[in-house]
Design brief:
With 130 residues, the chain is mainly α. It contains five helices and two strands. It has a single domain (28-126), classed as Cytochrome C3. 44% of the residues lie in helices and 3% in strands. The longest helix has 23 residues, at 3-25. It starts with a helix and ends with a helix. The structure holds heme C (4 copies).
Length: 130
Amino acid sequence: MNKKALAAYIVIAFIVSTIAVISGFSREQWEITSVRDSAFGVRMRSAVSFNHDEHNEKAAIDDCTECHHDYDENGEKMDYSTEESECSECHMADGKTRMDLMRAYHLNCKGCHEDEKAGPVMCGECHVNK
Ligand code: HEC
Ligand code: HEC
Ligand code: HEC
Ligand code: HEC
């Protein structure tokens, strides 16, 4: 290998590994089978089963902003989706606690199940024991 080829090889290897590292931090939605917000750390309850794509198909939710939302100062929902962020990035910001984050999850998930009279509302139906 001459020097130019070696330099090109190093540059390409660097770019490829950088992409691998970056993409390793985010998942594709069809790979998700449970909710596990990193902000909780140690949990009191078992993991929440949530088969992302299967759930949304069965529940016929087309609008990503049902969950991946944002709102403006007037409380109007924005029209863009925020799936790049964990819920905790907004719901535990500004000195809020894990209680607030838990409430946000419960309001969103259980709230819709109650409204639609479909989907689990009992603790053990979502926090399925291992
Ligand atoms: C019923 C609520 C809900 C709906 C609707 C929903 N998602 Fe999600 N999605 C979640 C939850 C909850 C997570 C996070 C799981 C976690 O953090 O453990 C997630 C995670 C993701 C992730 C992975 C993010 C990462 O880096 O880990 C992607 C990508 C995603 N959703 C895309 C979408 C798209 C695109 C749509 C619309 C077609 C959509 N979601 C609709 C609840 C929802
Ligand atoms: C980009 C920031 C952001 C992200 C990410 C985000 N939210 Fe929110 N959410 C807000 C804002 C802003 C409001 C409105 C003000 C408030 O109630 O704090 C709100 C309101 C809510 C509400 C009360 C209003 C309603 O829809 O009934 C719930 C419940 C909620 N969010 C749950 C979630 C869940 C669950 C996730 C993750 C799937 C999530 N949020 C992701 C910013 C965000
Ligand atoms: C906008 C409404 C809506 C939201 C938001 C929602 N769900 Fe559901 N969910 C449903 C409906 C409707 C069903 C029943 C689907 C069926 O079986 O017909 C359901 C079913 C389920 C089931 C039963 C198994 C399955 O996959 O069908 C689980 C578990 C579940 N939801 C968890 C969650 C979790 C966790 C969240 C929050 C991250 C959430 N859901 C948010 C509407 C919703
Ligand atoms: C519709 C589904 C659903 C139901 C029903 C539900 N939860 Fe949750 N709960 C969630 C989701 C989603 C989270 C976020 C989980 C995560 O990120 O690990 C959560 C988080 C929590 C947390 C904070 C994380 C931890 O384990 O310390 C506690 C505590 C909790 N739930 C207790 C309860 C209790 C008690 C009940 C019954 C009164 C209940 N939940 C019912 C979906 C549900």
